[in-house]
Design goal:
alpha/beta; 4-stranded mixed beta sheet; 4 helices
């Protein structure tokens, strides 16, 4: 059965530093689609983050590239299988050089935290109680 995928393309100031950051979070790199100007981060079977140098990113758009350290261009949200996994991923991101954002969001049935990566892209990590999702 076909599963639709998402390829999130993000501009980065330093491809090598971004590659190191995301591997420290536990994600793998697909070397087949990685070059000096781009790294292909495999988040899951259906989620891929393409981290492109700003020069390479500019090949795909005529728009000005946002300075993600000053401007929010996207909010990326990843699910986690438990509250502990939310904390684990955000804590890893901070240990790898990212910045924790906002306060913990704890609504009982939903728990989340967020961080900015090395380029200022905002990543949220959220756990939802499966019973609450099923209604």
């Amino acid at each position: 059965m076909y599963q639709q995928m998402i390829f999130v393309n993000l501009a980065t100031d330093d491809v090598d530093a971004s590659r190191k950051f995301f591997t420290e979070l536990g994600y793998s790199i697909n070397p087949q689609f990685s070059t000096d100007d781009c790294t292909c981060v495999v988040i899951s079977d259906t989620i891929i983050a393409m981290l492109l140098s700003k020069k390479r990113y500019a090949d795909f758009t005529k728009k000005e590239i946002a300075d993600s350290s000053k401007t929010s261009e996207v909010l990326l949200c990843l699910s986690a299988e438990s509250r502990a996994k939310v904390d684990e991923l955000v804590d890893r991101a901070v240990a790898a050089g990212g910045t924790a954002n906002d306060d913990v969001q704890d609504h009982g049935y939903m728990y989340g935290r967020s961080f900015d990566d090395l380029d200022g892209h905002s990543w949220e990590v959220v756990w939802m109680d499966p019973a609450a999702v099923q209604g």
